[in-house]
Here is the input.
Amino acid sequence: MKQLEKGSRKLLHAWAFYDWSNSVYSLTIASAIFPLYYGALFREAGIEKVEVFGGMIARAPLIMYVTAAAFFVISIISPILSGVADYVGNKKMFLKFFCYLGSLSSIGLYWFSLENLYYGLIVYFLGLIGFWGSLVFYNSYLPDIAYPEQQDDISAKGYSWGYIGSVLLLVINLIMILKYDWFGFVGAGLPTRLSFVMVGVWWAGFAQYSFYFLPHGNENRGKVHREVLFSGFRELKMVWNNLGEDRRLKRYLGAFFVYSMGVQTVMLVASYFAEEELAWGSAEERTMGLIVSILLIQLVAILGAWLTSKASFLYGNIPALIGINIIWVGICIYAYFIETPQQFYVTAAIVGLVMGGIQALSRSTYSKFLPKTPDTTSYFSFYDVSEKVGIVIGMSLYALIAQLSESVRNSVIFIGIAFVLGIILLLRVPRNPKA
Here is the structure.
């Protein structure tokens, strides 16, 4: 097939459609159904702590530590793989690899149980690597397929499509779980585990459209040899050195590192927080309430991504990001005191309004600030490594505070501080491109 021209409508839509395919993982596995299933396993067994590697640990800190470990691995392997992708000129191959790793791991969660705890945690670990590893190469395509004036809109469109697709599958899964007798199931356990299988099939299946139209990458440069494996780290060093000459990009990355740590931690722990800390009446009310709140976040996020795109057009990217971070601070203060499901619904609605917007705008702002270079993967690898290291720190501190204080509620204070620091650092980003 003839390669589509940069900026073409079909190419932009093919890129954005990968959000439709992979976002079902972040919603069903990371945010909604798996946290419920994970908590239910412990409650039904009547235990709060399990022995892992000779030590006793509560269920919430356990899954958070596993998540932090996965992001630590991602932050290490991403530079290696992005360097290889730039060298061989086939980033699509790596995008496919991580896509299939994530989709197969999602299917593997079908066999997650306390009896197979180590197996389950490993599969969950690999699923995170697959999902976030694929985003390294997916994000790096943005400046390759879109011109600067197109990037805000298509980035927001990708997130919007992702929310729509993931909500659609979640609604189907929700009907299967709550109305299991309609489908001939004896209980909610089997349809819950089947939802993990459906995520894997959806992700790999719909990704084929994006794979068909996306270009392979830069022109092939030759076979991989030993030095190529470390070229990614050399490129990161090159990017770091270049940042010294670009004060705007350097300061923006510093701010992004801090506030993104807060955003990603909230996204990864919100369901576990609500599942454990709020006063739900029954197991069914807990399931319905949490999934409804997650759906609310996704639906409002569609509006949030669009509003943020318009705000960035009217006021500029940095002022829009500062405004969103201020809202995040307010969310953290309110979340610390919530006790009831109704209060959580209010929080979820506000989170949805700013969650999609801050992600889409952060990605497109970084793309706009990049210097002219053919090796965009190196710069986006630096961006993604910064984000992943921030997640490792954020999740580890969140889990440690929860473990030491025996309450995940106290960890919310730490997240709020991250957003305050993000605002301060964003205020230091020069508005003049030459500054």
About this structure: The mean pLDDT is 83. The beta strands are 49-52, 55-58. The longest strand covers residues 49-52.
